[in-house]
Design brief:
Blueprint lengths: L6 E3 L4 H10 L4 E3 L5 H6 L7 E4 L9 E3 L3 E5 L4 H5 L2 H6 L1 H8 L4 H6 L2 H7 L6 H7 L3 E6 L2 E6 H4 E3 L2 E2 L6 E8 L5 E8 L6 E12 L2 E10 L6 E2 L1 H7 L7 H5 L16 H22 L4
Parallel strand pairs: 1-3, 2-3
Antiparallel strand pairs: 4-5, 5-10, 6-7, 6-10, 8-9, 11-12, 12-13, 13-14
Helix pairs in contact: 5-8
The chain binds flavin-adenine dinucleotide.
Length: about 280
């Protein structure tokens, strides 16, 4: 439980952090430390240097920028969960954040760290996908905006390159739509064995559109497009049948806690529950 030796850097600006990354290609950025430090203590990660982002000002915020909400990369899960702005204009991310781990994890862990970690059972990815959010990064070559659907590339892997820092997450406003996050939480860690996030828009009595992001079922979070397509223009009564397609075409993962078959079953059940709740929260046009 003692990490291998490493050097520690504490830059005061993003420019300084980028220069340090450039000169230490094997260094790791440190945010809340709630994924990286346990991995280092188990020697699953042995970075020679840590670049602590914690002293860089202005990376912890939630702002209304007009057409979307902007969340700084160092914003802790607890601030996302309790944000009045998010609750009013885009509540899905707040609901997902509120379900992460326990109070300590929510106070230390950050949205940028969670997305960069890309844990297959993390909660944010489902919501980020359902919202079609954008991940903003900075490298020595400038700013880069990565759509959520291009960000997660595999288990613990993302579209980020080694010299890139996540600076912000941009979330569309979902006023009028109904949103819900439902998860089957692992009883020990709180991670999502399966988690389903959805944003539903209603037209009269029909479902105009449903966006569904799923985490925990496969190594990479995904959009349940088969369910989305089956629901377009359909009444609420179509939800139960459409939800059976929640893991269509997906290779499910298994471990000692949940087999691939069980995960596929959970995906169907939690997709139905998330859709029913989101629809009940949606306002009809
Ligand atoms: C007991 C426990 C229970 C947990 N339960 C849950 C849960 O239920 N649901 C859930 O989703 N998560 C859970 N977590 C994980 C938690 O949310 C972590 O905080 C999160 O995954 C990582 O965020 P962090 O800020 O701590 O990142 P760190 O641990 O500091 O970093 C993680 C990785 O991201 C990189 N990184 C960090 N910031 C940036 C950045 N701005 N740009 C680029 N790369 C960056 C680091 O270099 C590192 O590789 C749990 C963790 C613990 C310890």
């Amino acid at each position: 439980m003692i990490p291998a030796a490493f050097s520690y850097e504490s830059p005061r600006t993003l420019k300084e952090a980028l220069a340090l990354l450039e000169s230490n290609p094997n260094a790791k950025l440190l945010a809340g430390g709630h994924s990286l430090l346990p991995a280092m203590k188990l020697r699953l990660a042995t970075p020679p240097a840590l670049i602590d982002l914690g002293r860089i000002p202005d990376l912890n915020y939630i702002r209304d920028t007009g057409d979307h909400l902007a969340i700084g990369a160092l914003t802790p899960h607890a601030a996302v969960a309790s944000s009045e702005l998010l609750h009013r204009m885009s509540p899905l991310l707040a609901e997902a954040a509120d379900s992460i781990g326990d109070v300590q994890v929510r106070n230390r862990g950050t949205i940028g760290g969670s997305l960069a970690q890309a844990h297959p059972n993390a909660d944010y990815p489902a919501a980020i996908l359902a919202l079609d959010a954008e991940i903003v990064t900075l490298s020595r070559t400038g700013e880069h905006v990565i759509p959520a659907r291009e960000f997660f590339t595999g288990m613990f892997t993302t579209a980020l390159s080694a010299n890139e820092i996540i600076t912000e997450v941009r979330v569309p406003k979902t006023t009028g739509a109904g949103a819900a996050y439902k998860k089957f939480a692992h009883p020990a860690s709180g991670y999502a064995v399966v988690g389903v996030a959805t944003v539903v828009r209603k037209h009269g009595n029909a479902i105009e559109s449903a966006a569904i992001g799923i985490t925990g079922v496969s190594g990479t979070p995904y959009r349940a497009t088969a369910v989305e397509n089956a629901l377009r223009g359909k009444p609420a009564s179509a939800i139960a049948d459409a939800s059976r397609r929640a893991a269509d075409g997906i290779e499910a993962i298994g471990d000692t806690f949940a087999s691939p078959g069980y995960r596929r079953h959970l995906a169907m059940v939690f997709t139905r529950r998330a859709l029913e709740t989101a629809l009940a929260r949606a306002r009809a046009k």
